[in-house]
Amino acid sequence: MRNETVSRGVRLAALVLLAPLIGCSMSVGNLFGSRDEKPDLATSANCPRIATLADASSLSVFAPGRRASVENLAYEADITRVLLDCKVKDQVVTADFGLAGRVNLGPRGEGGKKTLPIFAALTLGDKKIITRLSRDSVVTIDPDNRTGKFYEVIEKYSFTMAPGKKPQEYEILVGFRLTPAQLDYNRKK
After folding, report:
1. 2-188, which class in CATH?
2. How many CB atoms lie within 10 A of CB 153?
3. Which residues share a beta bridge with 175?
C-alpha cells in the first residue's frame, strides 16, 4: 500500500513537471467570458473537476510602503498548471493533486526565498465551499535569473460524497490566498 501511495505521488509530480514538455496544457480560459475560474487539464472521468480560480491565479507583492503599481512590484507569481488523480471507494474520494507555476521578480524585487500562500477549496454544485485547506509553498529566486518555478503536490485529500452524488459533481478550486488589496489589483489588471 505504501509503495502504491508513493507511486501515485511520484506520478502526479512527474505529470506536473512534464506537462509543459508534452503539450498537455489547456489554457483555454472560460468560454462564457466570466473571470470566475480558468479550466485546466482534464481529469479522470470518475474524479472531481479541478480548476484555478481566475481572480486568485496571480499573486502580486509590492515593495513595502509603496502603492500597488507595476513599477513598485517586488514579485509576481502565477499558477500555470493543475493536475488531479483520484480513487473512489465506497463514496470516499481520495485525490492527489498538484499545481505548478512561475515567479518573476519585479523592478523592486530581490532574489531569495519567497513564500506563496496557496489554498484549495472543495465545492459542490453551486460553488458552496465544503472544505478548504491552506498551505505555503516556498520558492527560491536566483537574483541573476530573476525568475523561478514552484510545484506543490497535495496527497491523500479525502472526502465522503453526499448520498446520491457523483465525484464529477464536485470541484476543487485552487489559487493564492490574497489580501483584499491584492484581489482588487488582480481584478483591475
Report:
1. mainly beta
2. 17
3. 119
Beta-ladder partners of 176? 118
Give the C-alpha separation, 125 to 123, whole Å.
Answer: 7
Matching residue, cell 513595502: 64
Rg of the chain in Å (alpha carbons): 17
Q: What is the rounded distance in angstroms from the CA atom of residue 52 to the CA atom of residue 5?
A: 25
Task: Region of 76 please: left (phi>0), alpha (psi -120 to 50) or beta.
Answer: beta
Cell numbers at 181, concatenated:
488589496
Q: Are 51 and 37 in contact (CB under 8 A)?
A: yes
* All residues at 6 or more sequence positions from 30 whose CB lies less than 8 Å from its CB, including other chains: 36, 37, 38, 39, 54
Distance CA 25, CA 182 (A): 26
pTM of the model: 0.76
Mean pLDDT per 10-residue section of the chain, whose length is 189 residues: 45 42 29 36 74 96 93 97 95 96 96 97 89 96 94 96 94 97 93
- Residue 24 in contact with residue 82, Cβ under 8 Å? no
